[in-house]
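Q: Here's a chain of 228 amino acids. Please give me its 3D structure as tokens.
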Amino acid sequence: MKSIIDAAKVARRARFANVASLSGLLALLASTLLPYFLPRTQLVASLLLLVGLFTAMVGIYYANRWVRKPRPEAVLDAELKGLSHSYRLYHYLHKAADHLLLSPFGVTVLETVNLEGRFVYRNGRWREYMKLGRALRYIVEEHLGDPIKAALSSQAFLQRELREKIEGGEEIPVSAVVVFTHPRCVLELLEETPIPVVKAAQLKRVLPQKGTKLSESLYQRLVVYFGE
């Protein structure tokens, strides 16, 4: 399996997270110290407090998304490394989804959830049970939302893109899988889901590995389209 990642994009987001976090903390410090040295600057200090708090929260959110480990791309790479070289895993290279898998059988959207906690799917809805630590970090972390809906939306978008931009694109099977990548997540599926929903360790089991293959020319057009 070949992994291709937009490392520059990841590095940019990580730098932004660090700069925003540091800038926010410095603004908060300034808002605290300024009134002691310049008593008539309380309004400025209040504005610095708000700006610093917002900037620091944005920085921490981005750090949780782009810096904190385990990184979802690293987990996916590790779980799929035994696949043949005809499988190509793309990270952050296409606007349809952060993670796309090209195989001899088509393209699979991998919608990742990199959160710790207990997640239950029942009656067509998701529910998240959080421990105290996760609850305290809730405002500066990504939220669960509806990963199935997000995956189906990405799948539909990618299907349209392939039909419009690749010769023979209407013949390309596009599937979607939701993957929970955090090692300390607990996943409970109490009814059948519209698309596969798995923890990372089970991902290989739900990927297309047999059936009608793409023609070599169509496969190569996809390789070019995804930017290699």
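Q: Can you summarize the key feature?
A: The two ends are 15 Å apart (CA to CA).
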